[in-house]
Amino acid sequence: MKLKYNSEIMSGSVFLVAAVVLWLLIPSQIDTMETSAINAQTVPKIVIGGMGIFSFCLLLQGIFTAPKKEVVITRTTLSSEHFQKELKSIIYAAIFLAYLVALTWVGFLISTMLLTIAILVFYGARRWYYYAIPLAMVGVVYFIFKMLLRVSLP
């Protein structure tokens, strides 16, 4: 199977759409009663605006300058070292997406402990103290923010 793609066009268009969606979500997610020019929405708008501008530039670069790459997918491609690296990156991203879902359902403490364990298992940590130290740190962070500073955590 042959695929022709341009990574600049793909990346630029995905992040441009993400920037537009985030830009439109700012007023509903960040409420502000201030009438001044600089308020709580200013920094997120600057960051997301910059993301949109650079995504658009990347999209233009892909359209006008970068040639399309041709990828041939075969069984040997799926077992290659490069594909295995990409697959590890996808699995790592999936772990973080699962963490975001778990964060809303079970809260900070349990989901962060599960994230810590999942990452350590993913990297093949075998010693017990590799697990004990990060889990203890999660507990310490939770205690400091929740109990001492009284910051509400999800």
From TrEMBL:
Please give the name of this protein.
Tripartite tricarboxylate transporter TctB family protein
Source organism of the structure: Anoxybacterium hadale
Organismal lineage? Bacteria, Bacillati, Bacillota, Clostridia, Peptostreptococcales
